[in-house]
Amino acid sequence: MNQSHARYQPGDPPKAATSIDYFGESVSDTNASRSLLFLQAEALDKATNNNDWSIHADLTVAPRTEYLHWLWQAKFVAAKNVSTVSDTMLRACGGSGYKTDLGIERILRDGKAGWVMGPSNEVLRQFVGKTTLMGMEVLDYWEQVPNHRAVHHEIKKMTLHQRKQLAQDILKDVETAEKGDAAKHPFQDSDFENPFNTCPPAYNNREFKTPDGVNHAPGLNPDKWTPLVLKKYVDVSDKMASFMFSLPNPSDHTGCYTGQYVIVKVNIRGKEHTRYFSPVSRPNAFGQIELVLRFETQGLMSQHFKALKPGDKVEFQGPCGGFEYEPNKLDEITLLASGGGITPGMQMIRDIMNNPDDKTKINLLYFSDNYTEILYREELDSYAAKDSRLRIVYTLGEAPENWEGEEGFIDTQMIDKHVTKPDGIKHKIVMCGGPTMSISCLHSLRSLGFPSHYIFIYGQFGTEQVRTVYGQNVQLSGHKCDNVLWATVGEKFLFRDAGT
Ligand SMILES: Cc1cc2nc3c(=O)[nH]c(=O)nc-3n(C[C@H](O)[C@H](O)[C@H](O)COP(=O)(O)OP(=O)(O)OC[C@H]3O[C@@H](n4cnc5c(N)ncnc54)[C@H](O)[C@@H]3O)c2cc1C
């Protein structure tokens, strides 16, 4: 008799789960989650006479609130279900579940990221536990009440030295907090897209002649859409490709400053969509602009780009913001990059490497998932081999045998080893990666004594991330090479801050 078809008897050793078992478990879990949600929806309808909004003319009527406790549970169970079902399905599909086209790994990643990064699920679990045991009145919705018991408990674990260090850090935070809004730049944070900006992004509308007598004008405009033709499309890794577009005239510069990003508009099924991109080409790589895109499984813009053919048109506007690099304003620039976050750094590296008169040193600490995902490795290595201004340290999630670079995410030890210490030089640290990378690197930088105003982060929430780690009223970097440390007198730092 074929053993695989033998009926399972109680007492037999547990058999390995099959795909059918996985599906059975996933369908049961999902339906349990859906049923809880359905019950809640039904209860909310009942409580409001089938969503009769007229009862809310009296603003004190809030009949749904008594279901809050149950709604937290429904949300918690649903979020947990996304994570466990996508994980189970991945196992059911074996190795092929990791193929990006299936979309499972994306959902798993997003589900797990939501679990870890969005504290909401963990907070919900706390809410449900606390209110079940102690009633709704113990809730501290906005985390306003410090938990002294937990604080004392943690402090007890510290050595005397660690306690002293913590006390000094807290005193520093209090000092900056007492300065209040006076420490804040009047323009900074007023532009959501460019929270570090100390003034609106600059536009390089200059027309100039090169020694060959050719006149160069800006090809893009920050206020008008310019259609650009796709010249070529080259895969740069499994998940990323480079797209080279022609500027309107072969002699055009982009009109951007090095480090700035642009906005792109496409029409997909009759609807316009826009996304920001950091070009990897230099503003003065005349006649062209190069973007590198990561293909997101369900990404609207990236999937549209994937289908583009040479000759197709895409509309561009820019510059829109970003760091504005200028030659010889800094002694050193450090780039902390992860995956596709190399794009603004690549632009700066190409710019500095193409300008022998620029004395600025550039230091790249670059994390990639694996060796094949290191973007522009050959080009980067060839620059570093012949130009002492560029120093590169690669770090890999999965390193091949005999790998001589670093391994794992960028951490305190790596920054300590590879980033020049804050010793009075004019230095900026430019970060581009995900929020998890930014926060973790910020903690490392702070613990190693790097001042907050050294640090520029690409992305909308960069200043918030700096404040989360350094304190609410700390001095922030501007978007230019200005407010950098330029001298130290004893223990006191002096700043040159052209932005204020
Ligand atoms: C300043 C700046 C510079 C940038 N520079 C670059 C750059 O140089 N290169 C680059 O690649 N990107 C860059 N980006 C990011 C870029 O703007 C886009 O956000 C990115 O390309 C994704 O856009 P998309 O339309 O392809 O994805 P979207 O459609 O916006 O989707 C976003 C995410 O949601 C997921 N998703 C969407 N729909 C679903 C669904 N139904 N189910 C499950 N998941 C779903 C997608 O898979 C994707 O992960 C930059 C962003 C900023 C702010």
UniProtKB/TrEMBL annotation:
Pfam families: Acyl-CoA_dh_1, FAD_binding_6, NAD_binding_1. Its cofactor is FAD. One of its GO terms (molecular function) is oxidoreductase activity, acting on the CH-CH group of donors. FAD binds at R275, V292, M301, S302, T343. Keywords: FAD, Flavoprotein, Oxidoreductase. Residues 223-326 form the FAD-binding FR-type domain. Gene3D superfamilies: Butyryl-CoA Dehydrogenase, subunit A, domain 3 (1.20.140.10), Nucleotide-binding domain of ferredoxin-NADP reductase (FNR) module (3.40.50.80), Translation factors (2.40.30.10). This is FAD-binding FR-type domain-containing protein.
